[in-house]
Amino acid sequence: MIKKSQFLTFALLFALIATTLSAKVDSFKPISFIKDTLPNGLNVIYTIDKDAPIIATVVQYRVGSRYEKPGKTGYTHFFEHLMFEATKSYERAAIDKFVEEAGGNLNAHTSFDETVYYLQLPSNYLEMALWIESSRMRGLKVDTIGVQTQKGVVTEELITRRENSAYGTLLDKISEHLFKGTNYEWTTLGSLDDIKNAKIEDFKEFYDGYYYPNNATLAISGDFDLAEARKLVNKYFVDMPRHQIPAERPFVIQPLEKEIRETIEDSKAQMPGIFVGYPGVSMFDPDFYALDILADILAAGESSRFYQKLVDNEKISLQAGFFPFALEKGGSLVFYSIVAPGKDNEENIKAMDEIVSDIIKNGVKPEELQKSKNIKEASFVGDKKGTLSKAESLARYNAYYGSPDRINTEIENYMSVTMDDIKRVAKKYFGTDKRLILIYTPKEKI
Q1: What is the pLDDT of residue 8?
Q2: Which three-class secondary structure string do you get for 88-153?
């Protein structure tokens, strides 16, 4: 499956956003939807779009790596894979065959807080999509063949990401230091030993703890008849039992007491990579929107401050940026620089600090704020055009906020950010020497 939880990937995406985007919110047509809640607790959201004869279904479970236990990590990511194995309704490898022969596609992703599965198919295959999702919600076969197969797949993925990729342990290091003592301390990949040592009974216990209708949101988007869709949802989901979801281990993210600095030799890195991390905010914190706007001012495109100073003018970095990473219970804020050949690591750190210090002291320019808002507007409008993206957004807003209507209104939080807000959050979150500095250095070849 294609994963979406790599920090560097997020950073590169932010850095590559074009600066000339100009979509306007006033041209955005609000998304109409209907939300039902079945007696067993399953939230179902319908949004009809007749523009193309396709449908998309998204099932979002409130289970991510933070719901795991020490010594039993990586289970959520493991189930992301196992849920494509056999169920009581179909054999191994059948789900891919069904979807491919119908001309559709399917995928999934896991994060600290969620697991999401989606299907996109021609509109006359809605029943098949709901049958598949209901089959694996409560009919998954957690058996020897499937578990051993996916242990091999997951083991290979963990080795590839951590050991065979440049800066492959970055997310693990950030989580370990910034979220120490909490269930965010390990990443979605979890521990290789935990997966290798897990027994079938361990996986069955995890599956039977979280994969229930009252722990999920189902979103259906596209070309369908509402009455027929409701009938099919009832057919496949209404008889499923409600289940008491395991109580979550409470945690509080503690502030850093001092600067933490670590140097990592990386055999896969071609150039040194510097990552400077600060404790961030959760997705529910009002400051998130100003920090996200600040991310664009610092890192979006060639007119951004990081690119101008580090890459274009001083030529001490091949690539530099900043991105906020907001989770349900906390977050992180990370600057990064891929150091140019022959340039000094400390010089890069100093340059990044100077950029932020200038914003703390002098704020940002009106045109910088407007550029970032333009980017947010374009992204907001663009993300609501696709059948699948609408279903994903509706499921996400319902799962986290209990309010799918945020698909129409969240942009207002970005548009209300002021220049004073930017200056304030820069000082609040970056005006400290209590931070994490990770320096990845290429390992010398012998």
Answers
A1: 39
A2: CCCCCCHHHHHHHHCCCEEEEEECCCCEEEEEEEEHHHHHHHHHHHHHHHHCECCCHHHHHHHHHH
- What was the pLDDT predicted at 2? 39
What is the rounded distance in angstroms from the CA atom of residue 396 to the CA atom of residue 139? 24
What's the CA gap between 151 and 424, in Å, rounded?
47
Domain boundary assignment for the chain: 23-237, 260-442
* pLDDT per position as a tens digit, 251-269: 899 999 999 999 999 999 9
Q: What torsion do the CA atoms of 133, 138, 140, 141 make, to the nearest 10 degrees?
A: -160
Check whether 20 has a pLDDT greater than 80: no
User: In this structure, what token pair is assigned to residue 83?
Assistant: 């849920």
Per-residue model confidence as pLDDT tens digits over 125-134: 999 999 999 9
* Domains 23-237 and 260-442 alike in fold: yes
Token pair 């896969």 is found at: 268
Q: Angle 215-216-221 (CA atoms, 0-180°, nearest 5)?
A: 170
Domain 23-237 sits in CATH 3.40.50.150: no
Q: How confident is the model at residue 7 (pLDDT cuts 50, 70, 90)?
A: very low
What is the pTM assigned to this prediction?
0.91
Compute CA distances 368 → 265, 298, 336, whole Å.
37, 9, 20
Q: How far out from the chain centre does Cα 137 lie?
A: 22
Ramachandran area for residue 167 (φ above 0: left; ψ -120 to 50: alpha; else beta) = left
CATH code for the domain defined by 260-442? 3.30.830.10
Kindly give, in sequence order, each residue whose CB lies less than 8 Å from that of residue 96, ignoring residues fewer than 6 positions away.
Answer: 84, 106
- Nearest CA among 111, 106, 1 for reference residue 62: 111
How crowded is the C-beta side of 400, counted as CA atoms within 13 Å? 22
d(CA 413, CA 431): 24
Angle formed at CA 82 by CA 80 and CA 83, multiple of 5 degrees: 70
Task: Give tens-digit pLDDT for 302-351.
Answer: 999 999 999 999 999 999 999 889 999 999 999 999 999 999 999 999 99
Residue count (the chain): 446
Query: In the beta sheet, which residues pair with residue 48?
Result: 222
pLDDT surpasses 90 at 5: no
Helix (H, G, I), strand (E, B) or coil at 397: helix
Residue 137's identity, in one-letter code, is M
